[in-house]
Design goal:
seven-stranded mixed β-sheet; about 270 residues; six-stranded antiparallel β-sheet; alpha+beta
Length: about 270
């Protein structure tokens, strides 16, 4: 997978991807989705953003599938950089595409001089709000945005100072185990950049893009190998337990704290937001 800048020839595919991702992940009507996609991701709007010096747009281009599978749009104003939109093709989720796009966008904003980072998510996005917490972002306000003739609620998240300190400490330290780097993920350790959970037999690896919402906290798919090929089970973020079961209707439940995820036909997602 290649992360690159958006080009004018990509606009049609990006519009298609946006509509598909919103249909899967947003509690909006088809008309609302079409209006939002046209206003924010129409050919003219995207072309203008490409030409804007304060805008960062990156796409994830899959050589395997020969198509664009993700897009992120960020804007900078003064010392503040804001990730405005991030979408991943529903058919390609669970491959850390969203994480890589988000990290690429925030790095580009910092290189442009942004000293404060923000990110936004519409209230109607049913899957994306917990995504920012994994990067140390916290909700700071809610505001209204106009889409067509309607007013929608938008959540604003901001990177906390402690998150920045943890990132700096991680970069300056060794590449070994760093439990402090996983604040908010109990009983985990960071090993060579991978979030892991120690077990009696060694450790399991968490796929932080394979997230399933729960009544008390998110669940994440756990693997016995770093390549995420052999599934171990699930990790409960609420209590840090791997003692998690799934029944025959794909209902996930933590046997330690009672956190529960009710299955949903469209809930194979990772990080599509906004």
């Amino acid at each position: 997978m290649n992360i690159r800048e958006l080009t004018p020839t990509d606009t049609g595919r990006v519009r298609e991807l946006v509509e598909s991702a919103m249909t899967t992940s947003y509690a909006l009507s088809p008309q609302q989705i079409e209006t939002l996609a046209e206003e924010k991701f129409g050919e003219e709007q995207l072309t203008q953003r490409i030409e804007s010096s304060g805008t960062v747009i990156r796409v994830a281009d899959s050589e395997e599938w020969d198509t664009i599978v993700g897009v992120v749009v960020a804007e900078q104003e003064g010392e503040t950089g804001e990730v405005r939109w991030l979408f991943v093709d529903p058919e390609h989720r669970g491959r850390e595409i969203g994480r890589k796009l988000f990290e690429t966008a925030t790095e580009a904003l910092r290189e442009q001089g942004a000293e404060r980072l923000r990110a936004t998510a519409l209230e109607s996005n049913t899957e994306g709000h917990q995504f920012f917490e994994r990067f140390g972002f916290e909700e700071v306000e809610r505001r209204r945005v106009e889409v067509g003739d309607e007013s929608l609620v938008e959540y604003v998240y901001e990177e906390s100072s402690s998150a920045g300190e943890r990132t700096a400490d991680s970069e300056e330290g060794d590449e070994g185990t760093d439990a402090a780097a996983n604040d908010g993920f109990p009983n985990t350790e960071s090993v060579d950049g991978e979030t892991t959970v120690p077990t009696d037999d060694g450790r399991v690896y968490l796929d932080l893009d394979a997230e399933h919402s729960g009544t008390e906290g998110a669940f994440f798919t756990a693997y016995t190998d770093e390549a995420h090929e052999e599934q171990f089970g699930y990790y409960c973020r609420n209590c840090g337990s791997l003692n998690v079961s799934m029944d025959n209707v794909e209902r996930i439940e933590c046997n330690e704290c009672g956190n529960t995820h009710a299955s949903r036909s469209t809930e194979e997602y990772d990080d599509s937001y906004l």
